[in-house]
Amino acid sequence: MGRSCRLPRLCWALVAERVAEGTWVELQRIVLEPEERAADLPEETRRVPLEMRVKGFLVRSAAVGEEAEILTPAGRRLQGTLDAVNPAYTHGFGPPVPELAGIGGELRARLRASRESGEA
Question: Residue 30 above 90 pLDDT?
Fold first, then answer.
């Protein structure tokens, strides 16, 4: 294969298999190079590129590491380097807050009662 892996998260990216149109994927793109970033940013932030990662459905088949276009769930069309196939969401919002656990049901009950009494 001879090429080095440019995308460290996905060294299997060197495999040249095509990913089918319509597959859920993640694109990566550099939005701003370090020298283009605002001068008032902290130095450790300013010295690295501003990188975009976005998930969506592949518009045309492409191989990982190639330029590709996606359609996001919000309907936007974006281009970038195909970085991952069927990517997981890896963010979290921390542990549940017990005080907030029942709010959804309580709010629905209040809205239902309001509609039934004609206040809405």
Answer: yes
Residue closest to 85 by CA, chosen among 63, 53, 69, 67: 63
Q: What is the b/e burial string over 40-68, where b = at least 16 CB atoms within 10 angstroms of the residue's CB?
A: eeeeeebeeebeeeebbebeeebebbeeb
Handedness of CA 7, 21, 24, 32 (dihedral sign): positive
Assess if CATH 2.30.30.760 describes domain 8-90.
yes
Nearest CA to 36 out of 26, 25, 28, 45 is that of 45
31, two tokens = 């939005």
Collapsing DSSP to helix, strand or coil, 76 comes out as coil
Confidence (pTM): 0.63
d(CA 64, CA 13): 5
The CA distances from residue 1 to 5, 11, 16, 59, 66, in Å, are 10, 12, 10, 27, 15
Q: What is the pLDDT of residues 65-82, one digit of tens each?
A: 999 999 999 999 999 999
Name the token pair of 57. Answer: 């459905």
Q: Cα 82–63–50 angle (5° rounding)?
A: 20
